[in-house]
Design goal:
By secondary structure, the protein is an alpha+beta fold. The protein contains 16 helices and 22 strands. A five-stranded antiparallel beta sheet has the order 1-2-5-4-15. It binds iron/sulfur cluster.
Amino acid sequence: MKLNKIERLKKRFSPYAYRERIHELDLYNLSEDDRFYLKNYGIYNIKLNEEQFMLRIRIAAGRITLKQLQLIIEIAKRYDLELLITARAQLELHGLSSSNVIKVWELLAQEKMLTLQTLTDNFRNIVTDPYDGVDIESKIETYDLIEQMQNIFLNKSEWMGTLPRKFNTAICGTLSNSVHFFGNDLFFALAKKGEDWGFNLYLGGKNSAVAQDADIFILPQNVSLMFESVAKAYRVYGLRGSRSKTRLFHLLDSIGIEAFVKKISQFYPEKIESKGQLTLDKNAPSPYRVLKDGSYGYCYQSRFGVIDLETWERLLSFAVDKKLQICFGVDQNLYFLGLKEKSVPFNSLLGASNVTACAGSHYCALSLWDIKSETSYLPLKKIEKYNIHIGFSGCLKGCGRHYHCDIGLVGLRTNTYGKTQKAARVYLGGVYSRPGVAARLIFPVVPLQHLAALIEKMIESYIKSDMEDFESFSETYLNKFSTEFLMMWFLASLYLKEEIYLQPCSEEKLYHQLEQYPDFPSFKEDDKYMQSINIMKHALWDDTIHTS
Ligand code: SF4
């Protein structure tokens, strides 16, 4: 197999050895090769936006000390930077330039805040439940296990940039939570076998795929050993040809999960045990949580990862004053742990705990939308009321996790319905809080100004179904139908202006119901409902007025 360009680069010069060159770089004139190497040190820059740099700070399990946070805020203020919480519970400093990025990078390193291996072909920040170890439903505290795993690879020459592609890891030791981890390459999911609590192993998740059950149970004391064994098997056997087919997912796709488990066993000295009983459950996000010691946790909802510096200072001084611990979640929110009373001097932001949004055009040059502002176009009240989870990405890379949510959105621009305007792809059917399936693309192009009406129809259908949550609605209703049928059905519900709702019956039966409406554009021979779809979508969305 011919190695891809990045692999050839790594063979010529190791990412670990590149550290020596960083201080000699002309940051005003970087090559693509330099950009790859810098990513191994958490320094991000792309050709599309050569002036701007970003630093990503690794925060194991999302736990940060107040002293570390204070220092990061001071740096952000001194250099006029923005500070964001990412969907892997880390922090990013945005707004850096060629003149100050290395200085800031060094300042962070001096204080032991590492940006190492937070980008490109590395083990990314290992994530867990923000209430890890302190929740009344916590069975295994995972923080120490995360540190053990991190110690295997962090700042080690044999691991820096040596994987075929990025590798996301999650571990959860709490019985019920409102986060979702099956989109990770490796997920240790809380499980019980006999009297023992431990973890079942899931492998091969990514932004567009759910991790598969490896049929392996691991006791807590063997977690780091298993992590290292999986990592070694991936490093040795991972695909390094076409860059778009190098994630662990692609190796499993090519050889099968059983064959990969055999490869893991080459590196794992213990006996591999078959899986236990998965014990993860889903709960609805709520602002307060009762903790084991009788104190409370509070979720401060950021504006989809964004918090201005003044607010950061207020949050920090509140934590210092009340002697609280701070933790970041993969929902891009900030958690206070240890509150004596159920009250805080902050207001909640509408929809923030229900929407995961990627950085967007303000922070990422690949985005066609300012995602974090565009969320205001969503029916946020309903989304929050019915606890719908939205994943919103600025491009198909999928940092907003649009495949692992109830309703997934990807921003784009289109001239399909007239002048060029903002629009979104819409995904449905994700089953993400338990072993399930990734969402499917249902609508390739919906004009932004019509998105809220369409999403409201979807939510109404869910409410009528009486299912306990949208995920169950997806499993029992949405995923029984073809993508074309769902597109046709939701368009019909807008086009006919009638109260029609999905039922768990055949497509033929539901189509026959639509035919009873005189205005429904039905055709005797309509391959995949495309004629009906075309008539309705253009009638609804053509000649839109607002363009940008
Ligand atoms: S999804 Fe695309 S636009 Fe959004 S942060 Fe990721 S790469 Fe950038």
